[in-house]
Amino acid sequence: MLALLLALLQSTGDPTPVYDGRLHRIEVRVPRIDVPSVHIDGVLDEAAWQQAALLTGFTQYRPVDSRPAEDSTEVLAFYGPDAIYFGIRAFEAHGNVVRATLADRDNIDADDKIQILLDTFNDRRRALLFAVNPLGVQQDGVRSEGLAGAAGGQNAGFRFDGVVDLNPDYVYESKGRVTPWGYEVEVRIPFKSLRYQSGATQDWGIQIIRTTQHTGYEDTWAPVVRASASFLIQSGTLKSLTGLRRGLVMDVAPEFTSRLDGAPVSPTSYRYHNIDPELGVNVRWGVTQNLSAAGTVNPDFSQVEADVGQVTVNQRFALFFPEKRPFFLEGLEQFDTPNALIYTRRITSPIVGAKLTGKVGGTAVAYIGSVDDDGGTPRLHPIVNLLRLRRDLGASSTVGLVYTDRIVESAWNRVFGADARVIWKKIWFSEAQFVGSWTKAGSGLGVRAGQLWDVTLYDRTGYSYGNHAELVGISPDFAALSGFVNRVNIVQGRFANRFTWYGKPGAELENATTFILVQPVWHYRDFFKLGSTFEGNINEQWLFTLRGGWGVNANYQNAQQRFDPPDYAGYQVDSAGTLIPFVVPHGRYNLWGGNIGFNTPNRALTLNANVGAGMGVIFAEAAESRGLNAFVGVTWKPTNAVRVDGQWTHQRLTRAADGSWFSTANIPRLKLEYQLTRDIFFRYVGQYTAQQIDALRDSRTGDSLVVRGQFQPRHTDTEFRNDVLFSYRPIPGTVLFFGYGSSLTEPEPFSFGRLTRTGDGFFLKASYLFRM
Fold first, then answer.
1. Pairing of strands 428-440, 704-707
2. Does the CA dihedral 215-221-224-229 come out positive or negative?
3. Residue of 362, 285, 364 lying closest to 331 (CA atoms)
4. Where are the beta strands (DSSP E) in 191-311?
5. Hey, which residues does 653 pair with through a beta bridge?
6. What's the rounded mean pLDDT across residues 308-334?
């Protein structure tokens, strides 16, 4: 029946050129149709589709590569003067199992979907991603080789084959429908939304990826093997594209924002401030086909959803939060560097900003300049410049430069570095980075210089075996005030081995992988003196992929931790009213721990959970601890328009010396979404953060600790955050947001009897994209 249907669909018009991926026919000559006359409605019934090139013959990539795909997929492709078109027929032979929901943009990871990767510079390092679910709901971004969201972008899942950044948004059309035999989708991508080469005739890289939720499989059109240091280098090619016309590319998006914020002015009174309306504008100009400039004046840099809570008890270093603000998102991946020397969330609220991104010849160029808000200090406006250059070498290697500076009156910080990534013998790569920083804290003060270096000696990405050897050194005076380097004065080693076993076709266990990781850490100067490590661990992690999309994970580790006397220089012990010096223990060794978790397939109800326990340390007391960690996540989709996400994070620490309680953290979070149409949704997010910490005491005597002359009593921190949002977003750049957010606190966690507001506010944002 399926063969008859295909024959009927292809029975009219000229013979369709067929490019079978399994036969390695992956150099595609896409027909040009000057007047395509295609209506994007999810039905491939126009005459133009009969002339399109046909891409078929998909191969499984995940969880096991090089096997024929279980479900057949056809992708039709042609282009006109101003756009490229794709028609998708995804056949499903297993019954009514297609997963499709009416979701917000980019929120289709739990659905069946098709990804179209267009490498418009044909450099095999970076590709634009255009994805659709069976209803045509869009997901877009950039897939690149190398770094995972280092500049602040949020990586889409933990991958070993490159980076998927879903933050960029592009204007394109798509419409789809579920059919008795699977699903069908039409896609039109205008050239105005793309940056590409300047030649009259050019080749583009292309890859098509199909994700099927009921099996958990990922299939590709051009065959991809896991035993390769590059995913994109294995893509196919669109050959000899000619006469591409973008016309003038000028996007102007004026925006209006208004806020009404409230705050307590005394224990018994609460007051709302004056309404604060703001006008701003964002402009994007396609300088050339391969270079774009953007500017913003008085932009709205607020987020419409709070960051997911993270446990900060016993946390020594700053936590990383992903970038969510629209101005920074386009081209954000071009700012990625090893060790996150650029982190755009260091720019808090610019008054004015400019950005240039693109590619000139074989060199990728990315620049941001801004004048930041004074942060409440009059006339102290930080001036920030961020520059990233990256040059292609050979088929897939690169060399790059980075420069940042941040100036606040007479104080400044400058960072300059170079890096290189070389792929050799197909499955190996080596990488190196060398960076210097220079910091002046103010007038009359000297300049502090620091160094950062990172050398990956080798990384092997084999089919059944892989390894990695890396050393990272950061000197005590290194500072990257425009980046995210949250720890200095260390040298850290990362030495890993990976072993993977694959099940036979139809087996319940499809893939089993173990990672064995050794991470020693030295003080910076001790490393060069061949001194001993002061912390480190040996960790083994197991990942099991079961048939149908189930997953199980487990790991165990043995760690050691010494305590640095300078960190406890301000510590004393209150011994019967007399302050005596605090004696810093040497360290703790053979600290064993482990966890186990699972995830269910993406269905109407999806679960994932993880629980762990083990030995550790309490840094605030320089003492050994026992810990329990747990996480539970639930996603429920009762209809294709309603989504409920819930999660709970729990951590409990006790003292190893006597078993007494030290701290508890609980962070439940609930998100409710109702997608009225593809463009309109309502959302509620509630998150309760509760962290309780006992009074600090000496683990040997039980006496109270005094830190810098102050006792450290038991304390409780609670925040109950609630956010409600109405969103209308027909295309990127045109939005209407109206929302309300409030923060409450109470003395005892989860009692809900004495909640008091610490702040709330209403906000409105409206912008409209004018595309010239």
1. unpaired
2. negative
3. 364
4. 201-212, 217-220, 236-242, 250-266, 269-272, 276-288, 291-297
5. 627, 663
6. 60
Residues 6+ positions from 189 with CB-CB distance below 8 Å: 83, 84, 85, 86, 116, 118, 130, 170, 172
Q: For 612-647, how does the pLDDT look when each residue is reduced to its tens digit (9 = 90+)?
A: 999 999 999 999 999 999 999 999 999 999 999 999
Work out whether strand 236-242 and strand 27-28 pair parallel, antiparallel, or are unpaired.
Answer: parallel
For the chain, report the end-to-end CA distance as a whole number of angstroms.
Answer: 48
pLDDT tens for 231-282 read: 999 999 999 999 999 888 899 999 898 889 899 998 889 999 888 788 889 8
d(CA 178, CA 19): 25
List Cα–Cα distances, 182 to 315, 320, 640, in angstroms: 49, 41, 17
3-state secondary structure 290-305: CEEEEEEECCCCCCCC
> What phi and psi values does residue 346 have, to the nearest 5 degrees?
-70, -20
- Whether the CB-CB separation of 653 and 665 falls below 8 Å is answered with no
C-alpha to C-alpha distance for 526 and 211, rounded to whole angstroms: 49
Residue from 512, 518, 488 nearest 500 by CA: 512
Classified as helix, coil or strand, 528 is: helix
What is the SS3 assignment for 609? strand
Q: Where are the beta strands (DSSP E) in 361-464?
A: 363-371, 383-393, 397-408, 411-424, 428-440, 447-461
Q: CA angle, 287 as apex, 283 and 289 as ends, to 5°?
A: 120
pLDDT in tens, 355-368: 999 999 889 999 99
Residue 104 and residue 110: Cα distance in Å, rounded? 12
Query: How far is the CA of 217 from the CAs of 157, 176, 663, 726, in angstroms?
Result: 15, 21, 42, 35
Look at residue 149 in the predicted model and tell me its pLDDT: 40
Task: Classify the C-alpha dihedral 9-15-17-23 as positive or negative.
Answer: positive
Closest CA relative to residue 745, chosen from 732, 733, 759: 759
CA 356 to chain centre: 22
Question: In this structure, are residues 739 and 716 in contact, taking their beta carbons and an 8 Å threshold?
Answer: no
Q: Is the pLDDT of residue 53 over 90?
A: yes
Residue 148 vs residues 154, 331, 364, 530: alpha-carbon distances, Å: 8, 14, 17, 32
CA–CA separation, 9 and 225 (whole Å): 32
Give, as one character, the DSSP assignment of residue 155.
B
Torsion, Cα 687 323 132 143, to 10 degrees, reads -140
Main-chain dihedrals φ then ψ at residue 734, nearest 5 degrees? -105, 110
Please tell me the predicted confidence (pLDDT) of residue 429: 92
d(CA 285, CA 701): 67
Q: With H, G, I as helix, E, B as strand and everything else as coil, classify residue 405.
A: strand
